[in-house]
Amino acid sequence: MKRRRFLQGMAAGTVIVVGGVVWRAADQGAFNAGNGPAYEPWRDWREADSPGPLALVRAGILASNPHNTQPWVFSVSEGVVELYADRDRNLGSFDPYLREMHLGLGCAVENMMLAARAAGYTPLLELAGGELEPIAAQQGRALVARITLESGEPQSGALYNAIPHRHTNRGPYDLARGLSAGLSDALSAVAEPDTAVNVQLFTDSEKLERARQVIVEATEAIIADGPMVHDSEGWFRHSWKDIQRHRDGPTLDAAGLSPVMTGIAKLLPRPSAEANHQYWLNATRDVHVATAPGIGLITVPNLYDRSQSLQAGRVWQRLHLWATSQGLAMQPLNQPVERVDRERQLGIKPVAASALEALTSPPAGRPTFAFRIGFPMRVAPASPRRSLAQVLA
Ligand SMILES: Cc1cc2nc3c(=O)[nH]c(=O)nc-3n(C[C@H](O)[C@H](O)[C@H](O)COP(=O)(O)O)c2cc1C
């Protein structure tokens, strides 16, 4: 009798625990990755209900951008689309000159230019110039690009077609599959037409090892910097509800973990900012750089020139779209340049700046963006995006 009651109690307990786990899994969207309104912009970007200039905005919002902050506002009129920086959507001490923000805006510009040509326009682009000042002097909205649309012949190609398939891949890359010898030249050719922006790729073991070290050391410096950790953490969306509410920020689904680890991470309570960034350091060291057959840099003559940052962003977007079309995975690993900005802001010893300088071969400009490239071992999922209605002026 006692034994039966004991077994009944066990069974009830198991049902409660399993039920609780299933409930929490459902609440966290463990069964819903990539679904819901936050992911709709990836699916309806080419829908015919928004012909004309709105097609540019639908493509623009799918661009790469730092920490998925989506720092943009679009103004659309008959023959002109304007892009504004929404400078309140910033990363604080993680991007103290809004250099990365402008790279992300440049990514949006590139998607818009591709979409404009695909829609049968000849787009004429004007970019804002000037120096990127400290964050406190850059507030509110600011016009960064104007695209004037003249009629032309529709032109779409591999880069345009890759727009909805491009996702940052933070999983392991396949070291058994070597990169082609012509990859460096191919990347430089894709980076065209802007000549002030250059691309360097490291694939030989010595340079690669040095680049790995520079990235890991910069990540260590970031996690030892309280304000940087705090400002980064503020954009993380841990729960399903938060993702659907905010439709921005990095998510667990996009962290590059295995499906099992992603499921477990979703069941656990949100980690502290410090723990979350320690995981990030571990992943950077043990997965991101450890499995990278190629690490590259995008360089510009002047790190704090607004139009050069926008142009470098255009180049990154083109590179990532091209890689996507070739079945290659990419991930920005921008920690060293984030530290360069932070060291400048604090007026401390330029450790990251010196390390990057030693890495680049003359006559390269200054690195403004670092990335890895390789063959993926996991499919990269989409990240959330705000809707058209949320980003139109
Ligand atoms: C300027 C810039 C810096 C970035 N830095 C990093 C980085 O250091 N690590 C990383 O994993 N992703 C980085 N990203 C990628 C963004 O986090 C990513 O584009 C964003 O979360 C949206 O996801 P998606 O690219 O998959 O659409 C960066 C992107 C840009 C444009």
Percent of residues in helices comes to: 40-55%
Termini separation: 72 Å
CATH architecture of the largest domain: 3-Layer(aba) Sandwich
Please tally the helical runs, counting DSSP H or I stretches of 4 or more residues. Answer: 15
Major beta sheet, strand line-up: 1-2-4-3
State Rg: 22 Å
The CATH topology of the largest domain: NADH Oxidase
| Domains, number | 2
Name the CATH superfamily assignment of the largest domain. NADH Oxidase
Order of helices and strands: HHHEEHEEHHEHHHHHEHEHHEH
Major β-sheet annotation:
4 strands, antiparallel
Structural class: alpha+beta
Low-confidence regions: 10-20
* Principal-axes shape call: globular
Average pLDDT, rounded to a whole number, is 92
Give me the count of strands.
Answer: 8
Q: How much of the polypeptide forms β-strand, as a percent range?
A: 5-15%
Ligands:
flavin mononucleotide
List strands and helices in order, with pairings.
Layout: H1 2-27, H2 40-43, H3 54-60, E1 72-76, E2 80-86, H4 99-118, E3 121-127, E4 141-151, H5 158-161, H6 183-191, E5 198-202, H7 205-223, H8 226-233, H9 240-246, H10 259-267, H11 273-288, E6 294-300, H12 306-325, E7 329-332, H13 335-346, H14 351-359, E8 366-374, H15 388-391
Antiparallel strand pairs: 1-2, 2-4, 3-4, 5-6, 6-8, 7-8
Helix pairs in contact: 3-4, 4-12, 7-11, 7-13, 7-14, 13-14
Bound molecules: flavin mononucleotide.
